[in-house]
Amino acid sequence: MIDHARDLASVQDATERLLTAAAKLDNASVTEPSRLPGWTRGHVLAHLARNADALVNVLEGRPMYVSGEAREADIERDAPRPLEAQLADVRESAARFQAVGAVPADWSRTVELRNGVTDSAARVPFRRWAEVELHHVDLGIGYELEDLPEEFTEREIDFLAARFSGHPDVPPTRVTDGTRAWSTGREAAGPEVTVSGAPADLLGWLAGRRDGGALRVDGGALPALPPL
Q1: At what angle are helices 150-164 and 199-206 packed, to 10 degrees?
Q2: Tens digits of residue pLDDT in 95-147
Q3: What is the mean pLDDT of residues 158-172?
C-alpha cells in the first residue's frame, strides 16, 4: 500500500536537503555543467521547478505539459537565471506541489503523465521524490547515490525494475544486492542474466547514472537499458 502522505513528507525533506546544498553555490557555478549531458546546473534547477508545477497539473486533472516543445522551452528560458531566482523558484513550486498534495482527494484514481503514461495518484509523490533525489545527485555538488535514503533506493530499484519488466529489448534479468532480488526484462525463455552489486550501483545503472562497471554480471553481458 502506497502511503502518499508519508511520501509527501519525504519529498519535503529531500527538497530541503537540495535547497540547503544548492544555496552554497554562486551565480557562476549555476552556469557550469551538471552531470546530465548538455545541461548546466541551472537547467537541472529549472527542470525541478517546472516538474513540480507539471505534477500539480497532473493532480488537478490537466495535461502535465502543454507539449514536449513547451517543456524544453521553459527549461531553456529559466536555466540562465541567477542562483537566488533559481532557489526561490524551486522553493515556491515545491510549496505549490505540497499544497495540492494536502487537499483531500481520491488518491486511488488514475492520472495521466507524459506520453500517455498513467499511474495512480498515490504514486505521484514518490515520482516527485525520485525527481528531487536523483537530480540532487545530477547537480554534482557532493550528494551521491550512496547518500540517498535506504528506503528510497530500494523503492526506486523496485520501480525501475518494474518499468523495464516485459521490455522486448531487455533480456530476462535478475537484479540483486545480495539480500533482495528483482526480476526485469522480457519473460524468461532461457537462463537469466544475473546482475549483482551494491544498491547504489544497481540504482545508478538502472537510472542511467552509472555505466554498471562496478556490477558483477553472470550468465551473459550486462544488458543495455533503454533511456528513461
Answers
A1: 40
A2: 999 999 999 999 999 999 999 999 999 999 999 999 999 999 999 999 999 99
A3: 95
Backbone angles phi, psi at 208, to 5 degrees: 75, 25
The answer to whether residues 90 and 19 touch, using CB atoms and an 8 Å cutoff, is: yes
For residues 19 and 49, the answer to whether their CB atoms sit within 8 Å is no
Half-sphere exposure of 226 (CA within 13 A, CB side): 15
Phi/psi for 66 (5° steps) reads -60, -40
- Cell numbers linked to 33: 555543467
> Which amino acid is located at 159 in the chain?
F
For residue 63 the three cell numbers come to: 495535461
CA-to-CA dists, residue 110 to 63, 113, 148, 152, angstroms = 13, 10, 28, 23
Question: How many whole angstroms from its chain centre is CA 73?
Answer: 20
Residue 114 CA to residue 106 CA, distance in Å, equals 21
Rounded to whole angstroms, what are the CA distances from 85 to 78, 91, 118, 124?
9, 10, 33, 26
Four-point Cα dihedral 69, 72, 77, 83, nearest 10:
160
pTM: predicted TM-score of the whole model, two decimal places: 0.96
Separation CA 80–CA 27 (nearest Å): 9
Phi-psi region of 166 (alpha: psi -120 to 50; beta: other; left: phi over 0): left
Are the CB atoms for 195 and 174 separated by under 8 Å? yes
8-state DSSP, 190 = S
> What's the mean pLDDT when you consider all of the chain?
97
Q: Which amino acid is at 16?
A: E
- Band of residue 196 on the pLDDT scale cut at 50, 70, 90: very high
